[in-house]
């Protein structure tokens, strides 16, 4: 069932959980986007990306394990949502602890 805005009745987007690399590449941020508004939850330092692919960078920085711990989940799955202008991963919770 689609959620609706109580004020105007328009359809509301479901919240999305994301991990994104900040503009200068120094830290990762975990949070959610709900109807266009960013709600940060946690940050962690990022290693230098260098020539690594986004996947290699995520694995080296253990993003899935970090996101799972922050969300209280046993397992999460990361899917690359954007590589430019900033690396962003969509997070899907697989199992809740």
**Sequence stretches where pLDDT stays below 50 over 5 or more residues:** none
Question: Please, what is the average pLDDT?
Answer: 87
Q: What value does the Rg take, in angstroms?
A: 15 Å
SSE succession:
EEEHHEE
Describe the structure.
- There is one protein chain.
- This protein has a five-stranded antiparallel beta sheet, with helices on one face.
- With 97 residues, it is an alpha+beta fold.
- It has helices at residues 54-60, 63-71; strands spanning 16-21, 27-34, 37-45, 73-82, 88-96.
- 16% of the residues lie in helices and 43% in strands.
SSE layout and pairing:
Blueprint: E1 16-21, E2 27-34, E3 37-45, H1 54-60, H2 63-71, E4 73-82, E5 88-96
Antiparallel strand pairs: 1-2, 1-5, 2-3, 4-5
Key terms for this structure?
97 residues; alpha+beta; 5-stranded antiparallel sheet; 16% helix; globular
Task: Give a nutshell description of this structure.
By secondary structure, this protein is α+β, with helices and mostly antiparallel strands.
């Amino acid at each position: 069932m689609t959620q609706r805005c109580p004020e105007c009745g328009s359809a509301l987007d479901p919240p999305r959980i994301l991990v994104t690399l900040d503009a200068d590449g120094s830290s990762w941020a975990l949070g959610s986007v709900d109807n266009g508004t960013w709600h940060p939850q946690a940050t962690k330092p990022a290693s230098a990306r260098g020539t690594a692919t986004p996947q290699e960078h995520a694995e080296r920085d253990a993003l899935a394990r970090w996101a799972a711990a922050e969300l209280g989940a046993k397992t999460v799955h990361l899917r690359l949502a954007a590589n430019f202008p900033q690396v962003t991963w969509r997070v899907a919770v697989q199992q809740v602890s």
